[in-house]
Amino acid sequence: MPGPQPSDRHVPVMLDRVVALLAPALQQPGAVVVDATLGLGGHSEAFLREFPEARLIGLDRDPDALRLAGERLAPYAERTTFVHAVYDELPGVLAELGVPAIDGILFDLGVSSMQLDEAERGFAYAQDTPLDMRMDSTAPTTAADILNTYSAADLARILFQYGEEKFARRIADRIVRARETEPFTTSARLSELVRDAIPQAARRTGGHPAKRTFQALRIEVNGELDVLRRALPAAIDALALHGRIVVMSYHSLEDRITKQTLAAGTRTDVPDDLPVIPAGHEPYLKLLTRGAERPTEEEVAVNPRAASARVRAAERVRAKGLVA
Fold first, then answer.
1. Which of 211, 285, 221, 203 lies closest to 250, judged by CA?
2. What is 224-288 written as a DSSP string?
3. What is the C-alpha separation between 219 and 143, in angstroms, rounded?
4. Burial bucket for residue 91 (CB in 10 Å: 0-12, 13-18, 19+)
5. Chain-centre distance of CA 245, in angstroms?
6. Which positions in this protein are listed as binding S-adenosyl-L-methionine (predicted)?
7. Which residues are annotated as a binding site for S-adenosyl-L-methionine?
8. Distance in angstroms (rounded) separating the CA atoms of residues 263 and 67
9. What CA–CA distance (Å, rounded) separates 235 from 90?
10. Which of helix, strand or coil describes residue 53?
11. What pTM did the predictor assign?
């Protein structure tokens, strides 16, 4: 019996809204849209269907995702290019393909449904699985490597910074003591340690007690925030005039970086008391969303994984080459 199809395993989040935000930039013949986080290709399939004269460049760091998305999007093969790359490699990818500018780009920063559903990838704290968490299975460092080698101070730092975990130091100290007896290899032992390290009263709020620790480890394994800080300015720089960027975040750390990066492009860098803004110093972005937009209650009821999604978008309103 054939396995589940990509369209069965992944429901693209806020699909209609994402398509509507990018639509004005993708109507003309030859428009180029980049799906910076291709995953199983749900959003890309909609782009190719709704914009029949657009060309898609899909990036993903996961070779399995690229293979499955390629199968899903095979009917559009003459308009698609898939590249094994992390999204901060976009400038090099575009140079390699000879693409001087793009008209639209989507970053869907969520862990893909495929990665969550495959226990051996180690993303789920509710199952006992190997502590892997690599989005690129060819990358060198796993979550187990971090747990078994980082100092208590470094573990506490990533748990606090990337998981916003109030009990980071307490959890880090317990991890270091526990690994002296036996190295960490699977998620159930870590999940139980975190639950025991958190005061009983605090376990009743904020969801699963291990949720924040697993988020922090996943971000560290994949360098997610550093990659995002490099990728967003590079993507904005690649946009053609009136090109659009849409970013879908799933936790406050990603959303904060997105908000700050887009907002920076809406301001001029000249003093407020200067009567005229010199050419080349005008804002180069216009925000398309008021704050972060969220999925509807109806969508969350059908697809609970959409619950934490936040979408921000902007349009380039000043041509390339004049960014200060």
1. 211
2. HHHHHHHHHHHHHHHEEEEEEEEEEESSHHHHHHHHHHHHHTTS--S-TT-SSPPTT-S--EEE-
3. 10
4. middle
5. 13
6. 41-43, 60, 87, 108, 115
7. 41-43, 60, 87, 108, 115
8. 36
9. 7
10. coil
11. 0.86
Distances in Å between the alpha carbon of 41 and those of 31, 56, 285? 18, 11, 27
| C-alpha 289 chain-centroid distance | 18
Phi, psi for 115 (deg, rounded to 5):
-70, -35
Residue 85 has pLDDT above 80, yes or no: yes
Binding residues, by number, are: 41-43, 60, 87, 108, 115
Distance (Å, whole) CA 89 – CA 85: 6
Q: What is the pLDDT of residues 21-73, one digit of tens each?
A: 999 999 999 999 999 999 999 999 999 999 999 999 999 998 989 999 999 99
Domains detected in the chain: 6-108+224-316 (3.40.50.150), 119-222 (1.10.150.170)
Task: Give me 239's structure tokens.
Answer: 């946009």
Q: What are the structure tokens assigned to 51, written together? A: 């914009």
In three-state secondary structure terms, 194 is helix
- The partner residues of 33 in beta bridges, in order of sequence, read 56, 104
Is 199 exposed, middle or buried (CB count within 10 Å of its CB: 0-12, 13-18, 19+)? exposed
Burial 40-72 (b: 16+ CB within 10 A, else e): bbbbbbbbbeebeebbbbbbbbbebbbebbbeb
CB 271 within 8 A of CB 131: no
Q: Is the dihedral of CA 50, 5, 67, 90 positive or negative?
A: positive
* 168-182 pLDDT, tens digit each: 999 999 999 999 999
Residues 6+ apart with CB under 8 A from 207: none
CB 172: neighbour CB atoms within 10 A? 25
What CA–CA distance (Å, rounded) separates 188 from 162?
A: 21
SS3 63: helix
What distance in Å separates the CA atoms of residue 186 and residue 196, rounded to the nearest whole number? 17
Q: Decide: 135 and 217 in contact? Cβ < 8 Å.
A: no
**Structural contact between residues 70 and 39, judged by C-beta atoms closer than 8 angstroms:** no
**What six digits make up the tokens of 45?**
């399939």
